Amino acid sequence: MYLIFRCDCGRALYAKEGVATRKCVCGKTLKVKSRRIFKKVTTREDASLAVQEMQDKIYGNTDFQLASDL
Ligand SMILES: [Zn+2]
């Protein structure tokens, strides 16, 4: 299983279940157990996809496109 969670900087990350810590690209080391888990998936492909979907929501790609039409 893979766990999907978020760093304090807002980035979405995934970690294999059982892994204690995960380092975010912002430099912060996160304790997986102390994070709120958004989703659990079975494969790394699903985990990577779920992170991508979360990033799209966080950065609001659709909103950005609409704003650029103004
Ligand atoms: Zn971060």
What do we call the CATH topology?
Rubredoxin-like
> Could you list the spans in which at least 5 consecutive residues all have pLDDT below 50?
none
Query: What pattern of helices and strands is seen along the backbone?
Result: EEEEEHH
CATH class: Alpha Beta
Q: State the strand order across the main sheet.
A: 2-1-5
* Class per helix and strand makeup: alpha+beta
User: For the CA atoms, what is the radius of gyration?
Assistant: 14 Å
Spell out which ligands are present.
zinc ion
Overall residue-averaged pLDDT value: 88
Assign the CATH architecture.
Alpha-Beta Complex
Query: How many beta-strand segments?
Result: 5
What percent of the residues sit in helical stretches (DSSP H or I)? 25-40%
Count of alpha and pi helical runs = 2
So what's the overall shape? globular
Largest sheet: 3 strands, antiparallel
The CATH homologous superfamily: Structural Genomics, Unknown Function 30-nov-00 1gh9 Mol_id
